[in-house]
Design goal:
The protein is 40% helix and 26% strand. The chain is built from five helices and four strands; from the N terminus they run αααββαββα.
Length: 154
């Protein structure tokens, strides 16, 4: 028996219909009508199990938490090199923090391998950082900016 090669379009529709709460039988009927090929409920269940595993492997819940002391904790999945994982400014920017306004308190980066049909296995980093706002008055740039503004009025 020849193996059927699923298309990306069929996979996308299967996932969409499954998310809408359709049964495997209803999905099989819809795909049969749409693509002029006889799909069965068991085939739908099997295909869904295989492609949903791919989906789950890349599912990562990014979080941002504001702590009671004013510091922020950020957890993101990032594509970066091992050198970038050690670069404070890179980490701050990758997590959406301006390096002139925020100070890195701690960082933890774990390698996370994910699979995608397009790129096969990719190495990403689960990056968790804690930052705190830089104290006012410590920024030389802000001090110079204030002096320039005062000089305009004198």
């Amino acid at each position: 028996m020849e193996r059927y090669e699923w298309t990306t379009e069929e996979d996308k529709l299967l996932l969409k219909l499954k998310k809408e709460g359709k049964s495997s039988k209803e999905i099989a009927d819809e795909l049969t009508k749409r693509f002029n090929f006889k799909f069965t409920a068991p085939a739908i269940r099997g295909r869904y199990q295989r492609i949903s595993k791919d989906e789950e492997q890349t599912d990562y819940k990014e979080t941002i938490e504001i702590l009671h002391d004013g510091s922020h904790r950020s957890d993101k999945l990032l594509r970066m090199s091992s050198e970038q994982a050690k670069d404070v400014n890179y980490l701050l920017n990758a997590h959406g923090f301006n390096a002139s306004e925020w100070e890195l308190v701690s960082a933890k980066n774990n390698i996370w391998n994910v699979y995608s049909k397009k790129d096969k296995i990719q190495t990403l980093y689960s990056s968790k950082i804690t930052v705190k706002p830089k104290k006012e008055g410590k920024s030389l740039e802000k001090l110079l900016e204030t002096i320039k503004r005062l000089n305009r009025f004198t």
